Amino acid sequence: MDLNIAVLAGDGIGPEVTQQAIKTLNAIGEVYNHNFTFKDAVVGAAAIDQTGDPLPEKTLKVCLETDAVLFGAIGDPKYDNDPSAKVRPEQGLLKLRKSLGLFTNIRPIKAYPTLIDKSPLKEDRINGTDLTIYRELTGGIYFGEKKLNEEGTVASDLCEYSDFEIERIAHLAFKAARARKKKLTLVDKANVLETSRLWRKVVTKIGESYPDITLDFLFVDNAAMQMILNPNQFDVILTENMFGDIISDEGSVIGGSIGLLASASVGEDHSMFEPIHGSFPQAKGKDIANPIASILSAAMLLEHFKLYEEAKAIHNAVEKALELKVVTTDLDPSSKYTTTKVGDFIADYIANSE
Amino acid sequence: MDLNIAVLAGDGIGPEVTQQAIKTLNAIGEVYNHNFTFKDAVVGAAAIDQTGDPLPEKTLKVCLETDAVLFGAIGDPKYDNDPSAKVRPEQGLLKLRKSLGLFTNIRPIKAYPTLIDKSPLKEDRINGTDLTIYRELTGGIYFGEKKLNEEGTVASDLCEYSDFEIERIAHLAFKAARARKKKLTLVDKANVLETSRLWRKVVTKIGESYPDITLDFLFVDNAAMQMILNPNQFDVILTENMFGDIISDEGSVIGGSIGLLASASVGEDHSMFEPIHGSFPQAKGKDIANPIASILSAAMLLEHFKLYEEAKAIHNAVEKALELKVVTTDLDPSSKYTTTKVGDFIADYIANSE
Ligand SMILES: [Mg+2]
Ligand SMILES: [Mg+2]
Question: Cα separation of A330 and A335, whole Å?
């Protein structure tokens, strides 16, 4: 397969971890005979420094013309800590999602046996957890009309959803469940919210076309409990934007390390893959950042293009690295492995395990 | 002190656990020379059976005329599992909160050393946790305008807040922090929501009148993570209605048993105290339900009337019961103690420990 990939490495540790993801993809390309071409473009604080714009037109054009975007991280204290800053790195990310029509955020959460001692949950709760969250990303209360009266005493936010916004992500979630454990849980608050009742109606209707998938429903407050009590019960979770924000961040800590979590944002025509961690400016250039989340985001990219065997090869290599403790110091304080060395190990393992 | 207390024991296990709370309050009255008078009234499924209304006028009148309401639990499968039921027990609770103007829900969360093995969190995370959540209860998106277009394809919910709704609960929360560890955390989503920005502005302003209280802010998605990672960091959490629903339910499972959690709902003129658990119809009349949450709700009632020493006496008795394993089978499967016996122990301990 030929894939043109835009690389938006961004700020802080973004470039150094993304480099390991590229290294990994190159190893996959070698072994499985794919032709991956990478095209760099600037974004975030780096882009503000160069052009004054966190998402320059040229970068957007690269993203629109390539098959997928591999994203690093953005954010720099120079802008984040300056309340008078008019342009912020994060605006680049929001504009990019919008411009590419990325309406679904996918967040897999997995308990790695070697990391269970780092989880805040007891072993019997987290053991075997392997779920994925499909969060609607461009609608709901975050994007609804905002009002503040002139006196500044009454404020409001509107949460709005249309059936087509629910349908398109629901199909993606049902299909994901079909390739996994065949269970889909819709998280809503249908006992109180009109938008949730619409979600339930639309998702139930679509579910009729996926008779092999078990569909169930959970109120968001109950979901917040179940994520801690028994995360094992979940396969695919489907939910609206704000509930997804809360539940996926809650879920991100149960595995024991956010340095291992990747996410994908997908739409009809475009897709973007990134680690969930931030730009961690304090570690920039020190070759100490954990590259695994970025490497796993590359695996999600491969899955998106149905290269399942290739994605599995990355997962196997990552699990081997964890097992042999070829990890950065966030996972093992006594480790001697750098960002680069972890990337080398994973790429070599892929290249040589055939 | 003379206190007239309305007793709305409700459905399922409501009556039997509430009976233990009354027993406990009577012991307190004896020891500390208070005059507690109890007035029974029907609510929930029991009220529907008798009058067709889950909150009969007569019950509301009793609540309005007494100093506080001691509430049990409501809900009965007869109504809950019948989709055609027009009158539901829960409507009684919502109407009661509204009629009494109960705009603040208070939910303490505490890790009991004897129950840490039941917590889904590891001991080092949960050890020493003692926080309380102040949740706004009558505003926000649960009560805002709901719309569905004629075709049933577009739905919306409005989240609205006025400054006075925030001010009145903020004062209660700051005062609570003053009597505790002097820290208040506002949970919001001020980077996205206009209502959250209003909350932040109003609470910051009110904070100037409480210079002894440390005020900090947390986005709700981050709060959902921190509640698991390090619940110890919290003292008083203040938040709007829906965020409070999610965060307090999440928090309710970290201690290891919801059979120990009580809540208070308070307004300007009225107040209501109840266990957070439901009516548990399967256990009705079997004398096996855990009465401690109901008993602790009686302690919250005493605290509300500034009877701190008396409330402390209940807490001490509960802790002694846990320590000596004078508990129901939900906490110790081999236990021989019934609901009544646990109540007896706690009342006796109060009566005799002076
Ligand atoms: Mg978030
Ligand atoms: Mg709830």
Answer: 9
Residues 133-162 of B with CB under 8 A from A: 141-142, 144, 146-148, 152-162
Told to judge if A249 belongs to the known catalytic residues of this protein, a careful annotator would answer yes
B318 and B229 in a common domain? no
pLDDT tens by residue, B88-138: 888 888 889 989 999 999 999 999 988 999 999 999 999 999 999 999 999
Distance between first and last Cα of chain B: 19
**Model-level ipTM above the cut of 0.85:** yes
Whole-angstrom CA distances from A265 to A55, B40, B64 are: 17, 56, 53
Judge contact between A291 and A14, C-beta under 8 A: no
Q: What residue in B sits closest to A253 (Cα-Cα)?
A: B225
The string of DSSP letters for A195-261 reads: HHHHHHHHHHHHHTT-TTSEEEEEEHHHHHHHHHH-GGG-SEEEE-HHHHHHHHHHHHTTTS-GGG-
What three-state secondary structure class fits B50?
A: helix
pLDDT tens for B279-332 read 999 999 999 999 999 999 999 999 999 999 999 999 999 999 999 999 999 999
Tokens read off for B246: 């999610």
Structural domains in chain A (count): 2
Residue A42: which CATH number?
3.40.718.10
